[in-house]
Design brief:
alpha+beta; about 15% strand; rod-shaped
Length: about 475
């Protein structure tokens, strides 16, 4: 029954997988997954805010370039001077922000993001390691299954080769049955090989998934750590220099508008306006990209936190029921492999070898009920049977114990006779009224029947316990 036991274990594993899939669907997203997508949304919102600030800066650059053009054309107005002053004040404020560093709230958010990605990395390692271990166990299971079916096929194969050498002594039907068994065993080997190969492929996929998943989680953690380090790092000299250059440029523009107008290259000023306008277009395109990434992150979070659909739940439940039915079928096949006797008694003979396969016509075990005995005789011909009646007293003697005589009665008379060497004989069953523990099944007994209306009709036959095939 080893194959049947392995099949039950395999079905139980499939049922566990189906139930786990249903539980995962019903439980929904974990808090770690929700936190990860919320962090993505926060990052996308921050990027969008930066891109929108880029538009504002680009618009300011356009205004400055237009003011410079007007200045070169000699048509400066009071509003132009006010705009230049506003630009100078904004440039000074930006320089102070660069020198002061990032806000503590932004740094705290970055630290939280790093910690979340570190937790996600460990959870991903644990999950992928569990999947790999499960795949390795499946490979071992399929390998054991292949070895079992290969052993069965090898035994059948050599049995067939042995019989091939003397086909004349084997009936055609028996020979065909053996060939069918050989072909079926070969198919089982091929199927087991396919299942083992598939299990190995699944194991390799699990290993690759573990490597790739861990690398992706580590990359996200490294990116978050790099962002945090950037926030904690003092302002770069290049950033300070750029902010100072902006202040100097704004101050120079204001001085230019307030002081004497000098002739300049109008074409160069016009080009500056065009470049600044192109900066607005670029910034607007980047805003659209940031908005798309934000919408994608929000949609992913909504999909993650959405309750499972009824068709999906019903599909998972149906798979669980299917796995339960398959497990019950495997358990039923295992139960059917056990032989059960319909009567209580003693096992007196076993005609099976371990590993032998039998059909329903084979006598596997003989069981006897020694609590009640009977003796059968087929010596009475048609001339004697007419004088015997059920209930007639009988004296029973035995060849093995000559000095033992037991009383009995006729309990059954066969209704139809049988031809034996030209005589018609009838089977008569004798029920002993007493018994001796020295007597055994199939010992020879002599019975002397005392007919109620005729002479005694002696007969000789074997003794047997009731409930055996001898009395059928």
């Amino acid at each position: 029954t080893r194959d049947l036991v392995l099949d039950v274990e395999d079905r139980a594993a499939q049922l566990a997988i189906a139930r786990a899939a249903l539980e995962l669907l019903q439980e929904g997203a974990t808090q770690e997954e929700i936190n990860e997508y919320q962090a993505r949304i926060a990052q996308a919102e921050a990027t969008l805010a930066e891109r929108q600030a880029d538009i504002n800066r680009a618009q300011a650059d356009v205004a400055r370039a237009q003011g410079d053009l007007l200045s070169r054309q000699g048509s400066v107005t009071g509003s132009d001077i006010e705009a230049a002053r506003a630009e100078l004040q904004e440039a000074i404020a930006a320089l102070e922000d660069v020198r002061d560093g990032e806000d503590e709230a932004v740094i705290a958010q970055a630290r939280a993001r790093v910690e979340q990605f570190r937790v996600n990395l460990q959870a991903e390692k644990d999950r992928l390691a569990a999947l790999k271990v499960q795949a390795e166990e499946d490979v071992n299971l399929r390998a054991n299954e292949l070895r079992n079916v290969q052993a069965d096929y090898s035994r059948i194969y050599w049995d067939v080769r042995e019989i091939e050498r003397d086909l004349n002594s084997v009936e055609q039907q028996t020979w065909q049955e053996l060939k069918d068994r050989e072909e079926a065993a070969l198919r089982e080997v091929q199927n087991a090989e396919s299942r083992l190969e598939q299990a190995r492929i699944d194991l390799e996929a699990a290993r690759l998934a573990e490597i790739n998943g861990i690398q992706e989680a580590e990359a996200r953690l490294e990116e978050a750590q790099a962002d945090l380090e950037d926030l904690l790092t003092p302002p770069k000299a290049s950033n300070v220099a750029a902010a100072e250059a902006r202040v100097a440029r704004a101050r120079a523009d204001l001085d230019k508008l307030q002081g004497a107008q000098r002739a300049g290259d109008i074409a160069s000023a016009s080009a500056g306006v065009s470049v600044a306008a192109a900066g607005i277009d670029t910034a607007e395109a980047q805003v659209e990209q940031a908005e798309a990434r934000l919408a994608e992150a929000q949609a992913s979070l909504e999909e993650l936190t959405r309750a499972p659909r009824d068709p999906d739940v019903r599909d998972r439940q149906a798979r669980v029921q299917q796995a339960e039915v398959a497990l019950r079928q495997a358990e039923l096949a295992l139960d059917k492999a056990a032989l059960e006797t319909p009567i209580s008694g003693t096992v007196v003979e076993v005609d099976l070898e371990e590993g032998e396969r039998i059909d329903t016509s084979t006598v596997a075990v003989r069981v006897a009920d020694f609590s009640e005995w009977e003796i059968e005789t087929t010596d009475l011909t048609e001339l004697g049977i007419v004088r015997v009646r059920i209930g007639d007293p009988v004296d029973i003697t035995f060849d093995a114990i000559p000095d033992l005589t037991l009383p009995g009665v006729v309990s059954e008379i066969q209704d139809i006779g049988a031809d034996r060497q030209g005589d018609i004989v009838y089977r008569v069953t004798i029920k002993p009224l007493e018994w001796d523990d020295r007597l055994r099944w199939r010992m020879t007994a002599t019975v002397s029947i005392e007919p109620t209306r005729a002479e005694a009709a002696p007969a000789s036959e074997e003794a047997a316990p009731s409930g055996t095939e001898v009395t059928e």
